[in-house]
């Protein structure tokens, strides 16, 4: 009974280790990273989901990551950092503003482009990496939505403050008008009585 448990644990550990190295493998060589980035960028560009300046930003991030891959020396911790840098950069760029396409449309286009890039580069789709990206996309989309809501609330608050000042000014004018009306009303009353 002890051997099957140990054997199962050994298989799980070996699979987990090989699975974690698969995600990092796109960064393991400059050629593979470049192929992955080109495939991702071109597939995402064809989807017409992001604005031209967002695509330029992703291309710029790709260049930066390529430089980092060349300097990483294949160290596992640096490769994992590149994974996270890539994921968070794409998510940040995609949801820097909440204009354009709906969140789910942008997210699906990015995930589809990543899947395509993985297939073209490695022959498989790293679903764990895609789940991490999906989580980051959701996080950045929520943060942008919260920021937009807070900005909108601040704008409404400022507009209300301006409106209140304007209303207060009208009250002042109204007071003058009431005073004038009272005077002319008194004169009118006196005129009617006399």
Can I get a quick summary?
The chain is mainly α and 194 residues long. It has helices spanning 2-24, 30-46, 52-72, 76-94, 103-122, 127-193.
Can you give a write-up of this model?
Helices cover 86% and strands 0% of the residues. The chain is globular, with a radius of gyration of 31 Å. With 194 residues, the chain is mainly alpha-helical. The protein is built from 6 helices and no strands.
Key traits:
194 residues, single chain, Enzyme I, Chain A, domain 2, globular, disordered C terminus
Q: What is the third-level CATH name, the topology of one domain?
A: Enzyme I, Chain A, domain 2
- The name of the CATH superfamily of one domain reads Spidroin, N-terminal domain
Helix content: over 70%
Helical stretch tally: 6
CATH class of one domain: Mainly Alpha
Low-confidence runs (pLDDT<50, min 5 residues)? 3-23, 161-194
The radius of gyration is: 31 Å
Helix/strand class? mainly alpha
Mean of pLDDT: 73
Shape, principal axes of CA atoms: globular
Protein name: Minor ampullate spidroin 1 variant 1
Pfam family, one: Spidroin_N
Keywords: Signal
Organism: Trichonephila clavipes (Golden silk orbweaver)
């Amino acid at each position: 009974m002890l051997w099957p448990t140990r054997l199962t644990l050994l298989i799980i550990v070996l699979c987990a280790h090989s699975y974690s190295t698969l995600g990092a493998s796109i960064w393991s060589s400059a050629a593979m990273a470049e192929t992955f980035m080109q495939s991702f960028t071109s597939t995402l560009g064809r989807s017409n989901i992001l604005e031209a300046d967002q695509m330029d930003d992703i291309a710029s991030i790709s260049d930066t990551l390529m430089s980092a891959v060349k300097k990483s020396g294949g160290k596992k911790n640096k490769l994992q950092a590149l994974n996270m840098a890539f994921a968070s950069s794409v998510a940040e760029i995609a949801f820097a503003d909440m204009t354009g396409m709906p969140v789910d449309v942008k997210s699906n286009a990015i995930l589809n482009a990543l899947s395509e890039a993985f297939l073209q580069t490695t022959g498989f789709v790293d679903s764990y990496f895609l789940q991490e990206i999906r989580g980051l996309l959701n996080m950045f989309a929520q943060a942008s939505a919260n920021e937009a809501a807070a900005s909108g609330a601040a704008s409404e608050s400022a507009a209300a403050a301006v409106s209140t000042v304007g209303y207060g000014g009208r009250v002042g004018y109204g007071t003058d008008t009431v005073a004038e009306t009272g005077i002319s009303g008194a004169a009118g009353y006196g005129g009617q009585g006399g």
